[in-house]
Amino acid sequence: MYPFVRMAYQLAITSKLPPLPLTGTHVSRHRCWPWDIDMWMELNNGRTLTLLDLGRIPLARRTGLISALHRNRWGLTMAGVSVRWRQRIRVFEVVETHSRCVGWDDRFIYIEQSMWKLDGTCANHALYRSAVTSRHGIVPTEKVMRALKLDASSPALPAWVRAWIDADAIRNWPPERAVA
Predict the structure, then answer these.
(1) Is the overall model pTM greater than 0.70, yes or no?
(2) Looking at residue 118, which CATH number applies to its domain?
(3) What angle do CA 81, 46, 69 make, to 5 degrees?
């Protein structure tokens, strides 16, 4: 089940924090509870993605994106993710999640997130492609930036982000269907 109580808690504790620029970093803390683990007694890979939501949504709120979405009756969706897992997160362990927008292109906003153990070790790192949507489809980021009262030009995307975008562009869609 989606952690609605945890999300409400994160939104409550961040409601008094100052606004962030669109490319600012939001830092949040999360505990790995018994219901977050898999049969190997570590944070489940799917639950990792759900916990990253607990950093992305408050980030969107602090940057003003949530307000712009409500004003314009837009939605927000994830259109891709690449995750690199490197360290196990065990039950009851606390991690610090760093969430920030690294830039955008004409259709998508790219969000970088990482989970850090309290000893300073990076446990995982994710790059998300997100899209603002309306009933007509994807809202061009230029229009989103205008709604945020920001310059429409993105900071230069890091080379590794550009490489991921380029690699994903040549990926077959739809994929070949495996025959059993």
Answers:
(1) yes
(2) 3.10.129.10
(3) 55
